[in-house]
Amino acid sequence: AMMLGIESSCDETACAVLDGEGRVRAEIVASQIADHAPFGGVVPEIAARAHLAALAPMVRAALAEAGIAARDLSGIAATVGPGLIGGLIVGAGFAKGMALATGAAFYAINHLEAHALTARLPGIAARAPDFPYLLLLVSGGHTALIAVEAVGRYRRLGTTLDDAAGEVFDKVAKLLGLGYPGGPALEALAAEGDPARFTLPRPLLGRAGCDFSFSGLKTAVAQIVSRLPPGSLPRGMAADIAASFQAAVVEAMADRLSHALAMMPDATCVVVAGGVASNRAIRGRLEATATAGGLTLIAPPLRLCTDNATMVAWAAIERRRAGYSSDDLAAHCRPRWPLDGAVQSLIAGKA
Ligand code: ATP
Ligand code: MG
Ligand code: FE
């Protein structure tokens, strides 16, 4: 029972083939970073066209890598939201066409649900995490703490009130003159700097609940930079700003996580997902916070934390196993699709 997964919601085109047990038979990701870098961010129109150009040869390569033909697929899963609508339509349309041609079942997958279930993929943890667990999703587009109660049942405990965590890393990196995407470059620069040099705000620290806010922090960094004569940011000072910024984010995240743990006393473990979770300072502090709460932190390998299609195929396998039916070929794409309550069918009229 082979499952093909397709991901095209943002700036990664990806496809993967998993067997019925969730073992990865093929996994391919093509990043569009180079296409978007000249613009300093993802350009939706460019993204959609790049997905269209990449997808067919990539699916052919993935089937070859898995050693199967299209007719051997029992299911075809595609991300249908949330994300950039052009890319979603390219990926979903491709998957629907293939399903129509091969007779395979079509699965319309919520990208956030795929991130949420990745930690249960065989081989990630010594034992697949049991429900309910606490998910911290920190990516370029999302920042949320979610109670994962069962396949298809999610409760959002907290979310960002303004920017996503990765987005603020990218914006601060831009202020410091680093390239796009800024997160990894900012982490490297922070390693050279003094985190105590600048006192930056810790938005919402100690406040009730577990929402996030990053815009005040971003503004504070912008003010420091704007007080300097243009084009004269010495590297040492940039490093100190980066280190001070990262320290503020680390502290805010640990605080929000400990509040979420208090809101979810039955959590079996903490799972992180999203590109920001690859930051070592953040990951280390989250680990310490989870341990202090008596729980282990499960962090999938980076290739599965960032956008990928293995998680899309796996979410379809989980849904099939949990007894959900496959989706109608009339399923819609949804730019916004919050992961709250039951993740339902997207058939016209029911969405
Ligand atoms: P989505 O939000 O739709 O899941 P995305 O492509 O925006 O997709 P990811 O691919 O999960 O998100 O992660 C990319 C983000 O993670 C970028 O904002 C990037 O700057 C940030 N990031 C990557 N590495 C690091 C790091 N070491 N430290 C901080 N941020 C990082
Ligand atoms: Mg990405
Ligand atoms: Fe993602």
UniProtKB/TrEMBL annotation:
GO biological process: tRNA threonylcarbamoyladenosine modification
Domain Gcp-like: 24-314
EC number: 2.3.1.234
GO molecular function: iron ion binding; tRNA N(6)-L-threonylcarbamoyladenine synthase activity
Binding site for Fe cation: H111, H115, D307
Cofactor requirements of the protein: Fe(2+)
Co-factor binding details: Binds 1 Fe(2+) ion per subunit.
tRNA processing listed as a keyword: yes
Main location: cytoplasm
A cellular-component GO term for this protein: cytoplasm
Binding site for substrate: L137, V138, S139, G140, G141, D170, G183, E187, N279
Protein's UniProt keywords contain Nucleus: no
Subcellular location: Cytoplasm
Keyword vocabulary terms for this entry: Acyltransferase, Cytoplasm, Iron, Metal-binding, Transferase, tRNA processing
Annotated InterPro entries: ATPase_NBD, Gcp-like_dom, KAE1/TsaD, TsaD
Task of the protein: Required for the formation of a threonylcarbamoyl group on adenosine at position 37 (t(6)A37) in tRNAs that read codons beginning with adenine. Is involved in the transfer of the threonylcarbamoyl moiety of threonylcarbamoyl-AMP (TC-AMP) to the N6 group of A37, together with TsaE and TsaB. TsaD likely plays a direct catalytic role in this reaction.
NCBIfam families for the chain: gcp_kae1 (TIGR00329), T6A_TsaD_YgjD (TIGR03723)
Protein name per Swiss-Prot or TrEMBL: tRNA N6-adenosine threonylcarbamoyltransferase
Native species: Acidiphilium acidophilum (Thiobacillus acidophilus)
Lineage, broadest ranks: Bacteria, Pseudomonadati, Pseudomonadota, Alphaproteobacteria, Acetobacterales
Gene: tsaD
